[in-house]
Specification:
The structure holds 2 protein chains of 2 kinds. Chain A is an all-alpha fold. Chain A is built from 12 helices and no strands. In chain A, helix 2 (about 30-45) packs parallel to helix 4, helix 2 runs antiparallel to helix 10 (about 175-195) and helix 3 (about 50-60) packs antiparallel against helix 9. Chain B is mainly alpha-helical. Chain B is flat. The model of chain B has no long low-confidence stretch (mean pLDDT about 90). The chains are: A mainly alpha, B mainly alpha.
Amino acid sequence: MALPPLDSPQWQSPWRAFAWGLRSITQTILTIVLFVTYLGIGALAHDTHFSLLWALVSTLFVWAGPAQIILITTLGSGATIIQSALAVTVSAIRLFPMVVSVLPLMRTPTTKRRELVFAAHLTAVTLWVECHRFLPLVPRERRIAFVHGLGCGLVSVCLVANTVGYFLAANLTQTLGAAILLLTPLSFLFSTARNSREVADLVALALGIVLYPLAARMNSGLDILVSGVVAGTIAYGVHWWREVRA
Amino acid sequence: MSFAQLIGDWHALAVLFVAGVVPNQIWRMLGLWFGGGIDEGSELLVWVRAVATAILAGVIAQIVVEPPGALATVPDVLRYGAVGAGLVVFLLTRRSIFAGVATGEVFMLAGKWWLG
């Protein structure tokens, strides 16, 4: 399936654009990665004694894999609500720049902020990555509808995956359960690396991984924030230095 | 499994809202609110994107270094080895996500089987 050309009459209807967005979930390996990741989240929710409804509500309203895994593991291991909320808040900070960088791709001079609320909600790492890939192929005035379709498609896939994972959990051996949980870091690592075009992005990714274990030794409860800001700022420094030298 | 078990209790859903939904939506809505005036190619955005990438990298490292649930039963060397092997194949296959993920998984499963 290829998207129609930018000047095609196919793009005249927003509903058509929504449908093209929905169909685009079949055009990316990340849909499979997401399916398996959410299979793992469903299984994890079951193993930590959360209900299926809880898992589905978390996918619908949190819609961020790492945050959901952190939430389930911290609450499951007896952390207080405050401790969990803090860890999730820190992990969710990365949504801020994602939303900031992705919304301008959809905005037209007449776009109102409330028209972007749902697109902002749908923004998470997979959608962020796919927007940068697909949106240049979509006429600007149809991009919001396209993203709504793409996002709704991805959420639906994940709800199904949660349900399947939840019911599989009882039958999975510990080794298979571990294999499903390992999919999350692997898929996030490689999909981010694949989509890093700038040197700054690669430096941020590599340094972020290396610095986290060091930051974790400080045991501040804000380890991810500390390593993220330090690694990100160094990566920006590299970008700045290359710009100045160029 | 009973219907009541699938629904769970309202207390757990309230915790989900406070510790899960609010902490995520706050950042999205802040991005929506303050992102409007920021130019796509601005230097601030390059920095913010780098920090976002590094925070995600931290989450990746955290899951591998301090593994949750069943992953904690996998020895350190297998978890790190799986990521390393996956990375090598990912780079060799000109950034194939599938090849990288599959290699990491096979490495971990083969290692588990080997160690018994």
